[in-house]
Design brief:
- The structure is a single chain.
- Helices cover 34% and strands 18% of the residues.
- By secondary structure, the chain is an alpha/beta fold.
- It has one domain: Rossmann fold.
Length: 236
């Protein structure tokens, strides 16, 4: 069986994988989730968060062959981690996530999408160093098919998101390109339009693309189904 490392997206933390981890364990896998710097229980000041610091946190959690799963924004740091040191990274899985394009920031990639549905749910801080999710739009954009209890849990744990990592350009080299990759596309996503996910997944082999009929948060909406997909990807 495989070992998974779960990397959250913007404004989230390790807590968002609460319902998925037991499902993976039940299938015989081992799995863990970490807080990126300045998220969840991590005490790094938002002003000190960088994309490379995110990547180093991921690498610091690896000590054996691991399948690394990145959700949403998490696609950028998992890619950067593989580019720095791919030794322990068995596969990268992008869960409705951004797959970096050369010489692009995450912000620039988002603007390449045909629609910007997430913007209604975002509020920038006065100095522009962070942004937060507006509670009144959170369910519509991120959790529309999730159980009420899961939405309440998420709203109680969301944090401010540092903007600098998302404004950092990346160009990925040979180490990153040597790692096998899969994409899980969420067809009801109201944060990253599904058609833009399809554009990003278009660079993957067809057999490495999986579709789920869920919102942006399949770890709450359909954790058992998500675990089954991860299981099948791990088995090749």
């Amino acid at each position: 069986m495989s070992h998974f490392l779960m990397i959250h997206g913007s404004c989230h933390g390790a807590w968002c994988w609460r319902d998925l981890l037991p499902e993976l364990h039940a299938l015989g896998h081992t799995a863990q989730a970490i807080d990126l710097p300045a998220h969840g229980q991590d005490q790094t000041p938002a002003a000190e968060a960088t994309l490379d610091r995110y990547a180093r946190a991921i690498l610091g959690a690896l000590d054996a062959p691991t399948i690394v799963v990145g959700h949403s924004m998490g696609g950028f740091p998992i890619s950067r981690a593989a580019d720095i040191d791919s030794h322990h990274i068995q596969r990268l899985i992008y869960l409705c996530a951004y797959v970096p394009w050369d010489d692009h920031t995450l912000v620039e990639m988002r603007l390449r999408a045909p629609r910007q549905p997430i913007m209604k749910a975002i509020r920038k801080s006065e100095d522009g160093s962070t942004f937060a999710i507006l509670p009144e739009h959170a369910r519509e954009v991120f959790y529309h098919d999730c159980p009420d209890a899961a939405v309440e849990y998420a709203l109680a744990n969301l944090c401010a998101e540092p903007t600098l990592p998302q404004a950092t350009k990346v160009t990925l080299g040979a180490a990153y390109k040597s790692v096998p990759r899969s994409y899980i596309l969420c067809e009801q996503d109201s944060a990253i339009p599904s058609e833009f996910q399809q554009t990003m997944a278009g660079y993957f082999a067809p057999e490495d693309v999986v579709r789920m009929n869920t919102s942006h948060s399949p770890f709450f909406a359909a954790p058992a189904e998500l675990a089954q997909h991860l299981d099948q990807i791990a088995k090749g």
